[in-house]
Design goal:
Strand order of the largest sheet: 3-4-2-1-5
Largest sheet: 5 strands, mixed
Low-confidence stretches: 204-216, 221-247
Strand content: 5-15%
Number of helices: 10
Shape: globular
Number of strands: 5
Radius of gyration: 33 Å
Distance between the termini: 87 Å
Mean pLDDT: 76
Structural class: alpha+beta
Length: about 250
């Protein structure tokens, strides 16, 4: 039987990702080492946040590789994550402070424990005055306007930045009412809430059951038929039919 192979690599974004841990044992070892598990349409994988210091990423990745190898897994550990690395690599995000900040927000979104935590993280993107989308819209518009200031002949390029800003406005409009829905993410559905409400009111549940129970209906018929010497017959709920010509 071939030995499962797991790859631990450093992404361009700065995060460290482990792929190939498809079974529960390898997944448990990676989580024990400090990786966060992600399960989506890409499948199961594990990662370290981009905000984690590089030295910590190296220590966790190396420790995870040691544990996996001890458990007889084949591990392909990127050389940049080995303990013997002499000098830290250049940080590709260093010139892109805004991109690094967005990656931090992405980490917060992925690590949200409930709908309210997710709403707080997403609010950094969607806030109408201070959110990321609003800042991007302003920057795109400013770029288009300044292109026109610098070169009247470059109006086509300026228009492209204007169109891009319009797309951001469309994205803001699409998500403007999502705050309340985000709070409810992961909570009980409406049908579950209604079911819980019914179960918490036993008298209402009993009445509903009796109303539709065929056994109870038969018992009522038997009481009326044979109950002259047992109980008073129940008055009929049907309206009386008056004799007369049919229309």
């Amino acid at each position: 039987m071939p030995t499962p192979s797991i790859t631990i690599s450093s992404e361009f974004s700065g995060s460290v990702v482990a792929r190939g841990a498809a079974d529960d044992l390898s997944a448990m070892l990676l989580k024990h080492a400090g990786f966060q598990q992600i399960q989506d349409w890409h499948g199961r994988r594990h990662r370290l946040p981009t905000t984690m210091p590089v030295a910590d990423q190296v220590a966790i990745a190396s420790h995870a590789a040691d544990m996996l190898r001890a458990a007889r897994y084949g591990v392909d550990l990127a050389p940049s994550l080995g303990k013997a690395r002499m000098s830290p690599p250049a940080n590709p995000l260093e010139p892109y402070a805004a991109g690094a900040a967005l990656l931090q927000i992405t980490d917060e979104i992925r690590s949200a424990k409930n709908g309210e935590g997710l709403r707080r993280a997403v609010d950094q993107l969607l806030h109408p005055e201070h959110g990321v989308l609003e800042r991007i819209r302003e920057a795109l518009e400013a770029a288009g306007e300044h292109i026109n200031d610098l070169d009247d002949e470059a109006y086509r390029l300026a228009d492209r930045f204007g169109f891009a800003a319009d797309f951001v406005v469309s994205a803001q409009s699409e998500l403007v009412d999502s705050e309340d829905d985000l709070r409810r993410v992961g909570g009980p559905s409406r049908s579950e809430a209604e079911s819980a409400s019914r179960s918490s009111n036993p008298s209402a549940s009993r009445s509903a059951a009796l109303a539709v129970s065929p056994v109870v209906a038969k018992a009522d018929v038997a009481t009326v038929a044979f109950g002259n010497d047992v109980a008073e017959p129940r008055p009929s709920a049907r309206p009386s039919h008056l004799s007369g010509p049919r229309r």
